[in-house]
Amino acid sequence: MIEIRKLVVFLFVALLFIYMIWINFRVLNKFGHKKLLSALMISGLGLITIGTFFDMISNLVDMKFGTLIPICFTVGAIIFVIYIILWSNYIAQMMSTLNEYAHNDPMTGLYNRMGFEKVFEIKIATQESFYIMVFDLDKTKLINDKFGHLKGDQYIISAARIIKDEIGKNGFVGRTGGDEFVALLENMTEEKIEDLKFFIKNHVSHIFNKQNTQISIGYSKYKEDGETFEELLSFADKKMYEDKEKRKEFYLKNQ
């Protein structure tokens, strides 16, 4: 007669085995199949299932399983523990990748709007002073129309690299739109901010020869010009449009 305790254990392990196969292949087929993980899971939990089955029927048959049952349990448990360790590492890597996709712009590698706002929230918690700088590339549509969208993408990527390289370790950079960027700058004076503007404008103007590419820039200071992200962004946007208009007026005067 089968012992109820052994039957319950076998059914539990068997159902767990079936469930783990379903979960394993559902997740791995969606995010990339890993044959080693599948093999370890099936081998480890399969041996444990076999062990519980032999243990359940040991009273019904004349066969003496001897050391077979403990071998199944021991080897199966070791393999399954290895699977759990590798699976946990795989899930951690997958979560890291998903988090990166959620907070980073895939084309430029900069923060996206969500990622940048998270950086902003962390920074304002320190109550330290900082600047918000906004950037708007000029002539993006003209370059797209004249040279194609691949060239337009190159223009955006090159500008993003220039901004990030110039800011360096003094802040964080995000892409908020097609050709619009935002930066948070720490440990900077207004004089250094103006120097930074000059260098970025100069480098952007040389992205494409003879196209006179330009970038409009504005900035705001935390607490002086606003305390929320929207307030600082709005103030910096106004300065950026003033910068754009000044350049247009200069261009018209020198026609």
UniProtKB/TrEMBL annotation:
Q: Which residue intervals define the domain GGDEF in the entry? A: 128-255
Output the CDD domains linked to this UniProt entry: GGDEF
The organism's superkingdom is given as Bacteria
Gene3D superfamilies documented for this protein? 3.30.70.270
* Annotated TM spans: 7-25, 37-56, 68-87
Keywords for this protein: Membrane, Transmembrane, Transmembrane helix
Q: What is this protein called?
A: GGDEF domain-containing protein
| Biological source species | Clostridium gelidum
